[in-house]
Write a structure and sequence with these properties.
Length: about 270
Amino acid sequence: MIVTSQSANALSCTSGSWKIWSLSDGHVDMPADLLRRGPGLGKYTLAQEPSLVRLSVNCFLLEGAGNNGVLIDCGAGGQWEPSLGHLDGAMAEAGIDPSSIGVVALTHTHLDHLNGLITRDGRVAFANLSRIVIAHDAVAGFVDQPHLERFRHLLAPVRDGDRLGGHLAALAIPGHAPGHMAYVLDSGEDRVLFCGDLIHVPAAQFARPELTWGYDLDQSISRATRINLLREASQTQAWLAGAHMAKPGIGRVVEEGSGYALRSIA
Ligand SMILES: [Zn+2]
């Protein structure tokens, strides 16, 4: 994968005939004590003890090979902190027309991943959206949100292993939220795992993947999922693209000490 452009809130790279964008929706500061030492083990204290950790919020756009305009997660729209909901600005910065987005693939239904279907000023963000890919087990979480009712007819539920076209497949990564789903691109040159909320605090959870996050729905399962996926990604030299990994949120996982480290693409 080769970086082809980079600006403050957007990075593009190519892999085979694919173009991959990282687009920043902004960031959010969360209490550091949401980090846990593991299921039932209490809070984990970061070495520097900051009271807040800053989480990037990244969205990823895939263009190419008959799958034009697949956007993986779409940020918070106007529904959360003012520091979030800036995907439209990142797209403008990158010269991407929002009406070119045909498919949104959601990793899960938390606010910071799906409310960007509506812009901060209340407009439908993607005028030509034809499909919202979502895990079967996440559909209820979408339908529960009345302000998103106008999008329900677009829902296209998938299960683990389903293909979204020639080179993209759904991969269940359970634990963080109902139906938490990764999307895997096999470009022919690289394998890229768009892994949603597998990692919340990269500064801690690559080195110690057993650490969990207070908002993980099932702490034990999310821990096992993270340990297994980081091992697999490091062994297969896959790329990882994470919603909350430091901007641009794309890198390779390498073994380091008793855990891992991320080698960012930029
Ligand atoms: Zn999230």
